[in-house]
Design goal:
The protein has helices at residues 13-22, 34-40, 56-65, 113-118, 142-147, 156-162, 165-177, 184-193, 202-213, 219-228, 230-234, 245-256, 262-268, 274-284, 288-299, 309-317, 321-334, 339-351, 361-366, 373-388, 395-405, and strands at 29-32, 49-52, 69-74, 79-84, 87-93, 95-100, 105-109, 128-129, 135-136. By secondary structure, it is of the alpha+beta class. The protein has four domains: 1-147, Beta Polymerase, domain 2 (2-Layer Sandwich); 149-299, cca-adding enzyme, domain 2; 301-308 and 316-351, no CATH class; 361-405, no CATH class.
Length: 409
């Protein structure tokens, strides 16, 4: 029985118009890969990619002639971006690998849908969709999609040797779409070939890891990565720390409606040690924003679960708020005895707006203090007095405190 998909996104005028344009005069065009997989699973679809028998120059010619914009975003790989009625679609010519080195592939254009499918990594990514919603499944990947089976196309070891990043993609797609356990042959191949990950750029590794940690539940995938030695290969900083917090974190996210946060999941399997974070950031060339958040988390002391509300705010004032939230989430899932207390502090902080210190140096100058090193000391002392008042003292009250304490007065 032929499987058909009937969903609203497929009837988009821009998408249907593009497929029709590329399928005229001997051409063929189909939706490819992830959009088909997610449609079969009735999951959200973010990007719609098109595969075609037309070579890039012909694709460009047809788009321009029809009045559409075309951008050569990946021309070396046979990909152009078609912009139709403000909607963007990546259009890639069917290809076949003729040479690979574990990182890059030399390809030739072709017209065979099966050959194009066989150069992909996993069976769940080797699906196509006609404009009328008919699923085209050259390699029998649809049953794998529906059963949550994540496996390599044909020989697992051969697929990995073509591009070692496929080891991480194997676990990433298992985190998103897999059921039960990963394919046994795939696990064996990942274990044998994990040293090949050293050939990959840090940027490619981090991109895959961040997508994996962003999955609804990456816990099982991380467990299999640990057992195969892949996790130690790409995240040696996690060694001797453990991954037990990951499942409990995911459970807490669901129960307490915490937002999914890939960085919190990473922190769950890292020791909160600044030197480890520095090593990790340098090795994976983490983006500055990611590096800085991890560093602030590693430098922030763990909150005391017994602090009452006002004492907690007085303590939190001196800390980075995001780092405290990160700490609270993780300690709440590790410390069963005080979990509810930490969660309560988390909710306090989420609702709290850090108050602004009302005093400035110019206020002390106006009150008669000479500019100099003593000003910073006086400002800091008064700030502590203000904090100890639970942030209640006004600017005028603080200046009165200063006047009464100034020995020159």
């Amino acid at each position: 029985m032929t499987e058909r998909i009937d969903q609203a996104w497929l009837s988009s005028a821009s998408l249907q118009g593009l497929l029709k344009l590329l399928s005229e005069d001997g051409g063929q065009a189909r939706i490819a890969g992830g959009a088909v997989r997610n449609a079969l699973l009735d999951q959200p679809i973010s990007d719609v990619d098109i595969a075609t028998t037309l070579i890039p120059s012909d694709v460009t010619e047809r788009l321009v002639a029809a009045g559409h914009k075309c951008v050569a975003t990946g021309i070396d790989h046979g990909t152009v971006t078609a912009i139709v009625d403000a909607d963007s679609y990546e259009v890639t010519t069917l290809r076949q690998d003729v040479e690979t080195d574990g990182r890059h592939a030399k390809v030739v254009y072709g017209t065979s849908w099966e050959a194009d499918a066989r150069r992909r990594d996993l069976t769940i990514n080797a699906l196509y969709l006609e404009a009328d919603g008919t699923v085209v499944d050259p390699l029998g990947g649809m049953p794998d999609v529906l059963s949550g089976t994540v496996r390599f196309i044909d020989d697992a070891e051969m697929r990995i040797r073509e591009d070692y990043l496929r080891i991480l993609r194997f676990f990433r797609f298992f985190a998103w779409y897999g059921s039960f356990r990963p394919d046994a042959e795939g696990l064996k191949a990942c274990t044998r070939l994990k040293d090949g990950l050293e050939q990959l750029s840090a940027e490619r590794i981090w991109l895959e890891l961040s997508k994996l940690f962003d999955a609804p539940d990456p816990g099982r995938a991380v467990l299999w990565m640990r057992q195969t030695g892949v996790l130690s290969q790409v995240l040696p900083e996690s060694e001797k720390w453990g991954i037990d917090a990951m499942p409990r974190l995911v459970e807490a996210e669901r129960a307490r409606h915490w937002p999914v946060d890939a960085l919190i999941r990473l922190m769950a399997i890292l020791p909160p040690m600044e030197e480890r974070v520095i090593e990790l950031s340098a090795r994976l060339k983490l983006p500055n924003k990611v590096r800085d958040r991890l560093l602030r988390w590693s430098r922030t002391p763990e909150p005391n679960a017994l602090m009452k509300r006002n004492a907690f705010f007085r303590w939190a004032y001196w800390q980075d708020q995001q780092a405290v939230l990160d700490r609270l989430q993780l300690v709440a899932v590790r410390d069963d005895e005080n979990s509810k207390k930490y969660h309560r502090q988390y909710k306090w902080l989420m609702r709290w707006q850090r108050p602004g210190y009302p005093l400035r140096g110019r206020d002390l100058i106006a009150a008669g203090l000479e500019p100099g090193p003593d000003m910073a000391v006086q400002l800091k002392n008064l700030e502590q007095i203000w904090i100890d008042s639970d942030f209640a003292l006004s600017r005028e009250e603080l200046l009165k405190q200063f006047a009464e304490s100034d020995p020159k007065k």
